[in-house]
Amino acid sequence: MANSERTFIAIKPDGLQCSLVGEIIKRFEQKGFRPIAMKLIQTSEDLLKEHYIDLKDRPFLAGLLKYMQSWPVVVIVWEGLNVVKTGRVMLGETNPPDSKLGTIRGDFCIQVGRNIIHGKDSVESAEKEIG
Ligand code: DAT
Ligand code: MG
């Protein structure tokens, strides 16, 4: 049932430091998605290495892992019709200058290494991350 599609969103340290947690939750709620799980967590090196496994050979990975452990993050599971695809559209592009105004990254950040929010890009990877 497509209505029960779920995605995994994480508000990164800069999202919390810029007081954007409420704004981001508001956008997903107003769009029509349901929050079905939400947690404030402190990430660990091991968890992040698994989370960013696709980036294991990239030169910025070490800085990314350090940054992601520098502050708590808010992880949220959202449910609803086409939530994975629509969620990615709401986030904007990975690199903020490529993000349209009206998207979260387009409205609230300027730098790729501080892009506020994470969201899965496929149903399979979302289900894996939720697990
Ligand atoms: P996305 O978060 O849009 O799925 P991704 O999976 O390619 O993008 O990369 C994960 C995160 O890694 C991204 O949100 C920010 C960081 N990142 C990506 N490219 C980067 C770069 N060139 N320099 C620094 N950080 C980068
Ligand atoms: Mg990604």
TrEMBL record:
<protein>
    <recommendedName>
        <fullName>nucleoside-diphosphate kinase</fullName>
        <ecNumber>2.7.4.6</ecNumber>
    </recommendedName>
</protein>
<feature type="active site" description="Pros-phosphohistidine intermediate">
    <location>
        <position position="118"/>
    </location>
</feature>
<feature type="binding site">
    <location>
        <position position="88"/>
    </location>
    <ligand>
        <name>ATP</name>
    </ligand>
</feature>
<feature type="binding site">
    <location>
        <position position="105"/>
    </location>
    <ligand>
        <name>ATP</name>
    </ligand>
</feature>
<feature type="binding site">
    <location>
        <position position="94"/>
    </location>
    <ligand>
        <name>ATP</name>
    </ligand>
</feature>
<feature type="binding site">
    <location>
        <position position="60"/>
    </location>
    <ligand>
        <name>ATP</name>
    </ligand>
</feature>
<feature type="domain" description="Nucleoside diphosphate kinase-like">
    <location>
        <begin position="4"/>
        <end position="131"/>
    </location>
</feature>
<keyword id="KW-0418">Kinase</keyword>
<dbReference type="GO" id="GO:0006183">
    <property type="term" value="P:GTP biosynthetic process"/>
</dbReference>
<feature type="binding site">
    <location>
        <position position="115"/>
    </location>
    <ligand>
        <name>ATP</name>
    </ligand>
</feature>
<dbReference type="InterPro" id="IPR036850">
    <property type="entry name" value="NDK-like_dom_sf"/>
</dbReference>
<dbReference type="GO" id="GO:0006228">
    <property type="term" value="P:UTP biosynthetic process"/>
</dbReference>
<feature type="binding site">
    <location>
        <position position="12"/>
    </location>
    <ligand>
        <name>ATP</name>
    </ligand>
</feature>
<dbReference type="InterPro" id="IPR034907">
    <property type="entry name" value="NDK-like_dom"/>
</dbReference>
<comment type="similarity">
    <text>Belongs to the NDK family.</text>
</comment>
<dbReference type="GO" id="GO:0004550">
    <property type="term" value="F:nucleoside diphosphate kinase activity"/>
</dbReference>
<dbReference type="GO" id="GO:0006241">
    <property type="term" value="P:CTP biosynthetic process"/>
</dbReference>
<dbReference type="InterPro" id="IPR001564">
    <property type="entry name" value="Nucleoside_diP_kinase"/>
</dbReference>
<dbReference type="Pfam" id="PF00334">
    <property type="entry name" value="NDK"/>
</dbReference>
<keyword id="KW-0808">Transferase</keyword>
